[in-house]
Amino acid sequence: MDTRLSRRRLVLGAAATAAAAPIGLDQTVLRAHAGDTGPSTPNILLFTVDDMGADTPGCFGGLPGITPTIDRLAADGMAFHRAHVPLAVCQPSRSALMTGRFPHRNGAEGFGPIRDDVPILTDLLRGRGYLAGILGKVTHLAPVHRFGWDLAIDQPDLGMGRDPATYARAAAGFFDRAKAEGRPFFLMANSHDPHRPFHGSAEEQRMFTPEQLATVAQPSKEYAPADVEVPGFLPDLPGVRQELSEYLSSSRRADDTLAAVLAELDAAGLADSTIVIFLSDNGIALPFAKANCYVQSTRTPLIIRWPGVARARHVDREHFVSTMDLFPLMCLAAGATPPPRLDGSDLTPLLTGSQSGRDHMVTVFHETSARRRFEMRCVQDERWGYIWNAWSDGQTSYRAENMQGLSWPAMTAAAVGDPVLAERVDFYLHREPEELYDLWNDPDALHDLAASAAVPGSAAQGALRRQRAALLGWMKDTGDPLRDRYLREILAGVPTG
User: Fold this and answer.
1) What angle do CA 486, 490, 495 make, to 5 degrees?
2) How far apart are CA 255 and CA 191, in angstroms?
3) Which UniProt keywords apply (predicted)?
């Protein structure tokens, strides 16, 4: 990769360029959507699920029939198979979505607040007359008062974020209010599924009181261990299968919640005038996924249904897209001017055609929900995945919520008699400062090629050099505070061109 190009292109496509220049939205597209000679002011329904892996929905390669509503939404809109969140843990992921900036540029690297000087989406939408509401995950956007929600209902009043009927009632009331006031709306509806505790798990019994459990809905379909297809990055063990079956049941309930909200949108007669965006805030909360920088950590099942604009039944498997790109898209759809220096780049051109510069992705990690710091940086392209683990020193041991539940104990127990699994368990705990994966031949990132990159003339050597240069360019462009450390510890004396 040419380093000069990477410094303009790597921030999630053309984000660095977009930060330096105004972002334009083709107004003819908006007029076509509006059906008249003026720009439209569409409603926006942003529906998020919590900790759903990108390959869980049926339309993204998951079990057939597991997510009928998500699949229907994809059939009515566009599905992006190379979409990623910038960071694979909920609050900073959501903060990046609502600011269009990487965590180190908006202040919310972990579970803290967005900086006061950083514009947020609802600031801009309010200026366009939008009614703003949020269902679930209210405190995962901080400080809450800055968002100025006209409606805010959190987890305890939504069946612990797991009752489709309660979401439906709240959404229906919000839609009615928007119609009565003659205002466009922005509703961020956040399912707490399939976040832990999973449906039917012992963890659920421990975490929820009997009174809370009584408000939690049953999924429309439950799954058993025999139904599970174990992803390649995890071993096929009984404990893993059991936990994945509970996760799949929770995923089905998340789909039920989406169905309930969309039914109310239809009943209100607002579906044709509403942009519906669906995504997960990060990958599944199991080892080698959430709270890391692997592909399965940050990849998200992004769907955009925009009647009259987004192509229906279109699957984009080519372009790398970030959830930060949704910030300028929503601003421009609402007729608001995006603030300068965004890290997200408007992806509206992809809804009707193609867009250059989207052949790379940078993701990061800072701290876990327990506020343990494990700094990571990742560069992915079509073939290669490169990770810098700034925390890996041979002694520090990784720990995160993805090691709760059944899977990690099952892995550590089985590792006692399995040298290959024992090596993988130890690797997960300690890592190496650099990891490199050939994702064409190793899509589950099982074989770290960083050490073999020392072989002169090898494909791995060239890839490592290019990804290092790309990461350095991104660090310079975004002001990453670890840039000097990266230069000192990794690139000292190493050519990057």
Assistant:
1) 110
2) 9
3) Hydrolase, Signal
Secondary structure element (H or E) that encloses residue 297, with its range: helix 295-298
Encode pLDDT of 20-79 as tens digits. 333 334 444 443 333 333 346 999 999 999 999 999 999 999 999 999 999 999 999 999
What are the residues facing 274 on neighbouring strands?
A: 43
Whether the CB-CB separation of 301 and 79 falls below 8 Å is answered with yes
359 CB burial (10 A radius; 0-12, 13-18, 19+): middle
Query: Whole-angstrom Cα distance, residue 209 to residue 156?
Result: 11
Could you tell me if 348 and 32 are in contact, meaning their C-beta atoms sit under 8 angstroms apart? Answer: no
Q: Across-strand partners of 278?
A: 47, 303
The C-alpha atoms of residue 24 and residue 289 are separated, in whole angstroms, by 35
Interhelix angle 238-267/407-415, nearest 10 degrees: 160
Cis peptide before 194 (omega within 30 of 0): yes
Q: Is 255 helix (H, G, I), strand (E, B) or coil?
A: helix
Structural domains in the chain, CATH included, are: 12-355 (3.40.720.10), 364-489 (3.30.1120.10)
Single-letter residue type at 334: A
Q: How does strand 78-80 pair with strand 302-305?
A: antiparallel
> 0.85 exceeded by the pTM?
yes
Per 3-state DSSP, what percentage of the chain is helix, strand, and coil (rounded to 5)?
40, 15, 45
Strand 274-280 versus strand 43-49 pairing type: parallel
> In angstroms, how far is CA 103 from the centroid of its own chain?
13
Residue 328 backbone dihedrals phi, psi, to 5 degrees: -65, -35
Give the list of residues 6+ apart from residue 488 with CB closer than 8 angstroms, or none: none
- Give how far Cα 326 sits from Cα of 110, 350, 386, Å: 21, 12, 25
The per-residue pLDDT for range 133-184, each reduced to its tens digit, is: 999 999 999 999 999 999 999 999 999 999 999 999 999 999 999 999 999 9
- Report residue 281 as tokens: 């805030």
The helix (run of H) or strand (run of E) holding residue 94 is helix 90-99
The first and second tokens of residue 194, run together, are: 């399939």
- Residue ranges of alpha helices (H) inside 112-201 are 121-126, 164-181
Q: Report the DSSP beta bridge partners of residue 201.
A: none
List the one residue out of 81, 83, 82, 102 whose CA is nearest residue 93.
102
Distance (Å, whole) CA 98 – CA 106: 10
CA quadruple 419, 285, 208, 49: dihedral, nearest 10 = -160
Any residues with CB less than 8 A from the CB of 363 and at least 6 apart, and which?
A: 84, 85, 86, 87, 88, 293, 297, 298, 377, 378, 380
Residue 309 and residue 306: Cα distance in Å, rounded? 5
